[in-house]
Amino acid sequence: MAQQVPVGAPVGGQTAQPRSTGSALDWASRNARLLAPLLTFVFLFIFFSLVTDVFLTPQNLQNIVTQIAPIAVAAVGITFVLLCAEIDLSIASIATFTGVLGAFFFVGDAVALGTWGIPVALLIALALGLLNGFLVAYVGIPSFMMTLAMLTIARGLSVYVSEGKPIFDVPPVLKALGSVSSQVLGIPVIGLFALAVLLLGEFVLGYTKFGRYVYMTGANREAAEMSGVDTRRVIMVSLAISAVTAGMTGLLFIGRLSSANPAAGEDVLIFTIAAVVLGGTSLFGGEGGIRNTILGLLIFGILNNGLNLLPNIPITFKQALQGIVLLAALLLNVFALRIERVRARTE
């Protein structure tokens, strides 16, 4: 019968000591990836609350929700793709193309579908995402190059369908969804819609077999395949999800703006990836998730809104300042990731 070694007894020439697992420092090192963006969010929230008089007003908080809601929907799909250790550069163009299609089908000059044009436009976005996924996962084109090509294709199709001109008639349901005046208990409906998509993404990633396969694919693709995971299918479905959420984003934007512009939406890509990475989701796969994405979205939304409220900063410098603050937040996330990895190696 094996003898139990009491705490403090010599083991291999050394004295076994109990691990301290309850200290605040120990907890922080274990949760550094989530703690870093949380501290960034708290700092920015307090800072803008103190230096501006209107930041905490209900109207401004509603504006923040309305501004980040479309990006939040696209961020769900990008989270899936990044967790697979892939990238999707086509989301901005697919968003614009889907929005243009939604308005084009509603106007009915060539194809009169009315409100039914919305699901048809989303199905076309899904088809583009499946094409991305198939050529990446099964043909072997790198996702960077494939989605870069799809970026150009979708952008060209947007110009072709709209003849290079904005379409000013959009479905009323999208106008109602995108309006800041459409609220439930003081919360814009567009924000509730984005929250529903985020919660659905959290459920899929955290509580389904497919979600586990996404993490396994990004963490170690070869090991996942040896465990019986069809990693190619996981990648294809993730890119399809990314395209659908990008299409939803495009429809939300035309509802907010009450027009579909083929030249709009260029900032969706950088804003979405920045928000997801700010929250702590790794660009190299397998680490992060929707909870991190929510934190990143809050950081990005507060930063974007708060800088516009500062009176003494030239408007021409605000974009550069935004980039500087984002870089500082990213550096904090990198250090947090290193702390977690050092902690994991020492356990």
Attribute tags:
4 strands; globular; mainly alpha; 347 residues; two-stranded antiparallel ribbon; disordered N terminus; ABC transporter involved in vitamin B12 uptake, BtuC; 14 helices; two-stranded antiparallel sheet; single chain
Instruction: Quickly count the domains.
Output: 1
Separate helix tally? 14
Return the string of H and E elements: EEHHHHHHHEEHHHHHHH
The third-level CATH topology is ABC transporter involved in vitamin B12 uptake, BtuC
Compute the number of strand runs: 4
How would you explain this protein's 3D organization?
A hairpin with a 2-residue loop joins strand 3 and strand 4 (187-188). This protein has a two-stranded antiparallel ribbon with strand order 1-2. The protein has a single domain (54-338), classed as ABC transporter involved in vitamin B12 uptake, BtuC (Orthogonal Bundle), CATH 1.10.3470. Helix 4 packs across helix 11 (231-257). The longest helix has 32 residues, at 315-346. Mean pLDDT is 85; it is low at 1-21. The chain has 14 helices and four strands. It is 71% helix and 2% strand. With 347 residues, it is mostly helical.
